[in-house]
Amino acid sequence: MTDDDGPRPDDAPEPGSPEAVGEPDPEADFGPDVPEVDVPEVDIPEPPDPSDSDVPEDLLRSFWKLVAIFNVALLAVSLGPMLAVFRGEWVNGGLVFAVGVAFFAYGYARYQRAKRVHGIGD
Predict the structure, then answer these.
(1) With contact defined as beta carbons under 8 Å apart, do 92 and 76 qualify?
(2) Number of domains in the chain
């Protein structure tokens, strides 16, 4: 007698499993079938090389300087009142706020000068 003569007791489904009870597969009823979509072929153009910039070098340098100046100004103008109100450091908070306002004024003056030098906004 060989092992392939008939069903063995360990081949039976586990008691309580969907196969043993005769229930349908619950995952089969999750929803409608996913529709098939025919996706057309599209030629994607290559992006331009970022090193081939149309912006003059001095304008680019002025832009990044202004970004740094206004970032410092925004940090100081927002941090100063927080120091004053939340920590009670009115003198330090006032000084930090004043430095932020000064940086905003300096940044605005540099921005106006950059506009005038590069002929922007004429």
Answers:
(1) no
(2) 1
